Amino acid sequence: MTTFKKAIATLVASATGLTEEAVESVITLPQHEGQGDFSFPCFPLAKTLRKAPAAIALELAQSLAPPAGFVKIEALNGYLNFFVDKSEFSSQVISEIIESGSDYGHSLIGNGKRAVLDFSSPNMGKELVFHHLRGTMIGNSLSKIFRKCGYDVVRINHLGDWGTSYGKLIVMFLREGLNESDLPGLTLERLNALYKAFDAASKQDPDLENAARRAFTRLESNDPLYRKLWASFREVTLQELRRLYTILNVEFDAYVGEAFFSDRLENILDLLKSKKLLVESQGAEVVELSEFGMPPALIRKSDGSTLYITRDLAAALYRQEEYSFDHCLYVVDNGQSLHFQQLFKVLELMGYSWNTLCEHVPFGLVLNKSEEGNWEKGKTRTGQASLLKDVLDAAREKILTIMAEKNPEVAGNQELATRIAVGALVFSELKNRRLHDIRFEWDQALSFEGDSGPYVQNAHVRLCSILRKTGLDAKVWKSSDLKDIRWTVYEDASSAALIDLLAQYPDKVLTALEARDPCPLAQYSLSIADAVHRFLHSSRVIGSPEERERLLLVYSAKSVLASSLELIGVPAIESM
């Protein structure tokens, strides 16, 4: 793959005056069949040569001879399309997959650099609801993609463990006659019930909101009882979060919440004052941002309490000091876009030029169909369940039913059903563009057909099954195994199409990195699955005269599909 790109770069550079690096950086893979295997866009040459890109492409196609490994060059709509010798191409692609092993698709673009990713970040004292899954899995996938591209990655769960919401919990906990002796048996379900009880009671007694603010003030002042309650509430929540993250195979390097920065807020206020950025407004303190087309950033309320942005400023400074990041990504839904615009602008006004290294990675909402047939953020069609744990449980039960019908050998396998259910739910979130709102279709997500997680997982299962039947499931193929391989075997349509896709994996990883979006990799995994199913439908593997070559292709496809599934957080299961 790399060799082919370098050959194109050398040829085009010699004919155009561009550097080989400049040519190689813009070489793309055609999107449609029949348009070759590599494309060079001639648009960058139009200004220099004062010709239309289509004319430039035509002249180059007529004057350039195909380099070794290529059979022809054609011009189409301003692109120079290169057609490879399929046998030579298959040899290079599969050889690279075998020689690279798990490093296939790895990039050096991030070597020596560090990326900090802030994602999931739930509020303490509350259970995860289904719509939290999307941000969690986008962040999880991006962390894997950054690592695949050579970055040192730090995954942070910025917990919402501070603020008036804790005052509400404390007020309700004490109001219901509970005390320290009740803490050992406390559950997250009980904390959830306290939240709901507070909301109901505050409608009857509006002064409860003031009581919650007073309780939080006492918490900020380190009242011993309130600090103990807070610590228990936080730990109970973390235990359940870690349980769910384990099911989802999501890991974090640090659980650093808002409370961690509570003793750093005065320093933030002092810094803002020293820069003459704080302005009094109706008793509160703000940073004016009207000249930048934004409303004021509220830093401290009139009652002296701080807000999210104050704590996010402290967190940003801490992360730069602690990690000296090259990228700091905040994977948070697009409803918080203004907040992050304000945050990054205030950092700039404070004189921190590294504010440009901070990025908000927004994403759209997960919409569910209501009983009235409307698409809205809220309950899922599993009934009344909108909690993530309930959706996971319901998905597992549905998968268990399907497994019992389709394959009695794995009937009742709870662990396998959970992994399929996770794959189904995660794939349904990531197969759509990050910025788009998505409509969660329960039956479609769990289907074993079409563009679903189980469909893609099934392609991996079929590949594993073939290797298992031939006793090669534990074999790691090496370069020495490629001796005497008949590369012409791969010239049939289904083999060639599959190998073309396998060759695209390194570029798809980089595309996902640049877009800050797992969707290209999810769609790529789906394309691989389609090609695998077509290949296995049209080509007999075991017992065929081409068994050795086709087993090699099966192994190569399994390796790449498993790697791409790993990057999007979908379990690559071996039986179904």
Detailed description of the structure:
The protein has 576 residues and is of the alpha/beta class. The chain is 52% helix and 10% strand. The protein has 21 helices and 14 strands. The strands form 4 sheets. A 5-stranded parallel sheet has the order 6-5-4-10-11. A hairpin with a 2-residue loop joins β2 (70-76) and β3. α14 crosses α15 (414-430), α17 runs antiparallel to α21 and α18 packs antiparallel against α20. The longest helix has 25 residues, at 224-248. The radius of gyration is 28 Å and the shape is globular. The model is unreliable at 379-385 (pLDDT under 50).
Could you give the topology of this structure?
Blueprint: H1 2-16, H2 20-26, E1 38-41, H3 46-49, H4 53-63, E2 70-76, E3 79-84, H5 86-100, E4 114-118, H6 132-148, E5 152-157, H7 164-175, H8 188-204, H9 207-220, H10 224-248, E6 254-255, H11 265-274, E7 278-281, E8 284-287, E9 297-300, H12 308-323, E10 327-331, H13 337-349, E11 358-361, E12 366-369, E13 375-376, H14 388-406, H15 414-430, E14 438-439, H16 442-445, H17 453-469, H18 493-503, H19 505-515, H20 519-538, H21 547-568
Parallel strand pairs: 4-5, 4-10, 5-6, 10-11, 12-14
Antiparallel strand pairs: 1-3, 2-3, 7-8, 8-9, 12-13
Descriptive terms for the model:
576 residues, alpha/beta, 5-stranded parallel β-sheet, 3-stranded antiparallel β-sheet, 21 helices, 14 strands, 52% helix, globular
What shape does the CA trace take? globular
Question: Which sequence of strands runs across the widest sheet?
Answer: 6-5-4-10-11
**What is the average of the pLDDT values?**
92
Count of DSSP H/I helices: 21
How much of the sequence lies in strands comes to 5-15%
Class from secondary-structure proportions: alpha/beta
Low-confidence segments, given as residue ranges, are: 379-385
The counted number of beta strands is 14
Query: Main sheet, how many strands, which sense, barrel?
Result: 5 strands, parallel
- Backbone CA Rg: 28 Å
Taking the alpha carbons of the first and last residues, their distance comes to 33 Å
Task: State the helicity in percent bands.
Answer: 40-55%
